Every structure is written in C-alpha cells, then in structure tokens.
Amino acid sequence: MKKFLLLLLLPLIPAIAAGVGVLCPAEESADVPVIMYHLITERSKYIGKYGITPDEIEKDLKYLKENGYTTVVMRDLVDFVNHGSPLPPKPIVLTFDDGNYSDFEYLYPLLKKYDMKAVLAIIGSATDKYTKQSAENPGARYPNLNWAQVKELHESGLFEIQSHGYDVHGSRGSGEKKGESTQAYHSRLHDDLKKLQDACEEHLNYTPNTFIYPLGIIGKDSRIVLEKLGMVASLSCYEGINIVRPGDHDCLFKMHRYNRPSGESIGSLLSRMDKLRKTTNAR
Q1: What are the domain boundaries of the chain?
Q2: What is the pTM of this model?
Q3: Which entry of 8, 74, 211, 242 is 20 to 30 Å from 154 by CA?
Q4: Rounded to 5 degrees, what are φ and ψ at 147?
Q5: 10 CB burial (10 A radius; 0-12, 13-18, 19+)
Q6: Whole-angstrom Cα distance, residue 97 to residue 256?
Q7: CATH 3.20.20.370 fits 25-282, yes or no
Q8: Helix (H, G, I), strand (E, B) or coil at 139
Q9: What is the pLDDT of residue 262?
C-alpha cells in the first residue's frame, strides 16, 4: 500500500519541493442561487413585495453566514465559466436593483459587518439627476445614489456595479415599444446602455459587464446588443435554478433570480429553490 501511494505521489514531488501548489480539477458545474432585492426601508408604506426592513436584510446576511454560504459577484461567475476559476462550496449572488440610497445607508455597513458582497444595478439617469441635485443642495436626502456614493461603494470592494440601463427603466423600456422594428429597438437599447457604460468609465474607471433587465422585460435578440457592448451576462426576473459550467457562456445570460419580499426569509427562499431543484432532478 505504501509503495502504491509513493508511486501516486512521485509526479508531484518536484512541484511540492519547489513550493508550487497542486491544483484540484475545476468543478464541472455549480448551482448558484441569485436573490433579487430592491428597497431597504423603515417606512411601512414601502414595505412589501419590493421593500424590506433593515432588520430583515441583516437577518438574511446572518443566516447566510451561519449556514456556510459565500456571496459572489458576476465577475466570479464569469471567471468560473471562462477560466475554470474555483467557486466556493455554497456560492450565492445578492443583487440590489435601482441604486437606492438605502443601499448606502443600510446595506453598506452590513456588508462590512458580515464580510459579504453584493451586485448593485444602477440607473444612469437617476444617478446623474441626483448628482446634480446633490451639488445644488448638499444637505438634502435623495432617493437614489449620486456618483460620489456609487464610487465609494465601488472602491470598497463590497459592491460590484452593474447596469440597469441609463434610461430604459420603465414600462417596456428594455423591450420593444409598440410598432418599433427590431433594428430600431436594438439601436435604441445600444445607445442607452452605452451611455451608462461611458458614464461608469468616466466616474469609476470601470465598465459594467452584466445587464440586469428592468422589470424583467427581455426584448427580441437583445443579447446581440449586449455582446456588441462587451457584456457577458444578463439577469432576468424569472425564478428558477442557475447551473453554471466552465465553457458554457450561454448559462450566464438570462439568469434566474428569486425576489425577496418582506415577510419571507432568505431561508424560506432557499428552501423553495431546493424543492424545485429536487423536482427538476427527479424528472
């Protein structure tokens, strides 16, 4: 038995002696749940399907920490697919739509406290609007982040900034309008997303690589537009299981997300996903 083990280790001895780490083979696939959040608020009239309390988001982060989950961002998934870079055993993506000021006020300190990361999808027009208003009236409180705040979150390393479009957020904004040709739609979507990419380059020296569809509306062949802009992933609002695999670039587009409403814990969401996974695997 000893001789057999020695024969197995012989090819590795030069690398071990040289202090070179021996890498394990990359995982063939990874199951990655994505949770969708919107507003964090203490105002009761906004708490509901798209608004949760600061206490609820802290309980979510605490649950994930205590149950062995590791938050990852889109860059981690892209590196896994493109290069086989390893993911942690229980990866999870937490997305926050719209670039609300509450992400700065409540989420930022909690991510520091629990050593976690989040994906923040900003709306370019809102960011520009409140940057201008903040300059005119610095003491006022605004609903969305300004560029200085987005930059601080970006540079903290706790937030990955991604695209919610510049001004397509709204009814069918990221899909075709009535009577609009596919060519006209693609041109309009391209110009809108490029405007936000350019703004991110200007203010953050960084370009988003993922489009998070506003309202989950996905227009015809919109992936063509995303790829022309260098984007390599997109997130929908449809619930479902995400399986990512090295070399499978399609798996990064139209990824599923589970909305986190007030009153349902993240543990409950993950339990629902697990039941769906078992049902799917049993077919």
Answers
A1: 25-282
A2: 0.89
A3: 242
A4: -65, -35
A5: exposed
A6: 14
A7: yes
A8: coil
A9: 97
pLDDT tens-digit map of 141-157? 999 999 999 999 999 99
Helix, strand, coil fractions of the chain, as percent rounded to 5: 45, 15, 40
Q: Cβ(193)–Cβ(165) under 8 Å?
A: yes
Helix (H, G, I), strand (E, B) or coil at 150: helix
- 89-104: pLDDT as tens digits: 999 999 999 999 999 9
- Helix/strand/coil (H, E, C) string of 69-90? CEECCHHHHHHHHHHCCCCCCC
Which residue type is seen at 250?
Answer: D
One-letter amino acid for residue 212 of the chain = I
The per-residue pLDDT of the chain, averaged, comes to 90
Contact criterion met (CB below 8 Å) for 117 and 159: yes
235 φ/ψ angles, rounded to the nearest 5 degrees: -120, 135
Assess contact for 148 and 202: CB atoms under 8 A. no
Residue type, 89: P
Q: What is the distance between the alpha carbons of residues 69 and 65, in angstroms, rounded to a whole number?
A: 6
Residues β-bridged to residue 121 = 97, 162
Q: Are 81 and 14 in contact (CB under 8 A)?
A: no
Write out pLDDT tens, residues 162-199: 999 999 987 677 999 999 999 999 999 999 999 999 99
pLDDT tens-digit map of 230-248? 999 999 999 999 999 999 9
Nearest to 280 by CA among 63, 233, 272: 272
The single-letter DSSP state of residue 144 is B
Strand residues in the chain grouped as ranges (E): 30-31, 34-37, 39-40, 51-52, 70-71, 91-98, 118-122, 159-163, 210-212, 233-235, 243-244, 258-259
CA dist., res. 71 & res. 184, Å (int)? 38
